[in-house]
Amino acid sequence: MTDEQWESTRRANLDGLIYVCRAAIPNIPAGGTIVLVSSTAGQRGEAFHTDYAATKGAVISITKSLAVELAPKITVNCVAPGWVDTDMSRPAFGTRDTENGKRAIEATIPLGRVASAEDIAGPIVFLCSPLARHITGEILNVNGGSVLCG
Q1: How many angstroms separate the CA atoms of 18 and 94, rounded?
Q2: Most-buried pick from 29, 50, 70, 111 (CB within 10 A)?
Q3: What predicted TM-score, i.e. pTM, was given to this entire model?
Q4: Domain for residue 149, yes or no?
Q5: What's the domain count of the chain?
């Protein structure tokens, strides 16, 4: 991995998150919530994407640290998606035969499909709702059962 790749991934996945949290936290009222987005890669690692996995693992640690620091005023949780049908994931589906590559990935997911952006948004909305008012410091895996970790 080049220094440039490491730097770029770190800046996008960690520096941006820290700067946004730093700016937002003083303005979040009591009873507010923060939901960060990690990845299953941050929990189990990912071959040939060490930079991505390491930064997403750091997001999990940041979630847990902020949850303790900001309690009881603000809850802090994290959603950790698995495969999501986005521009970032499409190269992994295969450049010549995207549908067959995607089907091969879907065969590894117990629910049988790659998540849509809406599949990830729903759990984020839940964590922002009053229904989740007694949840903080948690990592909610949204991966169709492909990575069963707690």
Answers
A1: 33
A2: 70
A3: 0.89
A4: no
A5: 1
- The residue assigned the tokens 């067959």 is 100
Domain range for residue 98? Answer: 3-142
Write down the catalytic residue from 52, 78, 141, 143.
Answer: 52
* Residue 29: DSSP 8-state: P
The pLDDT tens digits of the residues spanning 32-75 come to: 999 999 999 999 888 889 999 999 999 999 999 999 999 999 99
52 classed as catalytic = yes
Our CA dihedral for 9, 22, 143, 131, rounded to 10 degrees, sits at -170
Kindly state the tokens that stand for 122.
């729903």
Distance CA 61, CA 42 (A): 10
Range in 31-40, 72-81, 139-148 the model is least confident about? 139-148
